[in-house]
Amino acid sequence: MPSDLGAVRELATAENGLATITTTRPDGTVHASVVNAGVIEDPVTGKVSIGFVAIGGTRKLELFRRNGHATIVFRRGWNWAAVQGATHIVGPDDADPDFDDAKLPELLRDVFKAATGTHDNWDEFDRVMAQERRAAVFIEVSRLSGNR
């Protein structure tokens, strides 16, 4: 497993955490969207991963559940870094027996902050995250590529 995520951290910070996340549809075509992501430890495995927050009920969550893997690409100008790996979802629709559900609001905050997010009213943030059934998605770093 690659251990140097310095380029990923640098690119994520320089581009406000914006990255393109991809996975495959049942017909083999690629599903892609843009998210705010950052480097953070998976709260269950303890492995350094790429994390982001996703709205509940989205197609990408459905595909992550089915496929169990994703690729995420960070870029700034012509510099880029991609991380491929298994996905792990923690959220109201994806309970993990090894994660205390009561800690979900704090986890969503931590993932949001890792993706360069800030907020003026964390109580409001928590309310919206719960209302939208947001989940934390982690991508284990099994392959790292890029041009730096």
Characterize this entry briefly.
The protein has one domain: Pnp Oxidase, Chain A, CATH 2.30.110.10. The chain is globular.
How does this model look, in words?
By secondary structure, this protein is an alpha+beta fold. It has a single domain (about 5-145), classed as Electron Transport, Fmn-binding Protein, Chain A (Pnp Oxidase, Chain A, Roll), CATH 2.30.110. Helices cover about 25% and strands about 40% of the residues. The protein has helices spanning about 5-15, 60-65, 105-115, 120-130; strands at about 20-25, 30-40, 50-55, 70-75, 80-90, 135-140, 145. A 6-stranded antiparallel β-barrel has the order 1-2-3-6-5-4. The radius of gyration is 14 Å and the shape is globular.
In terms of quaternary structure, the protein is single chain
Strand line-up of the largest beta sheet = 1-2-3-6-5-4
Number of helices: 4
Q: What's the alpha carbon Rg, rounded to whole Å?
A: 14 Å
Query: How would you state the average pLDDT, rounded?
Result: 95
Main sheet properties: 6 strands, antiparallel, barrel
What is the domain tally? 1
Counting helices, strands and paired strands, the structural category is alpha+beta
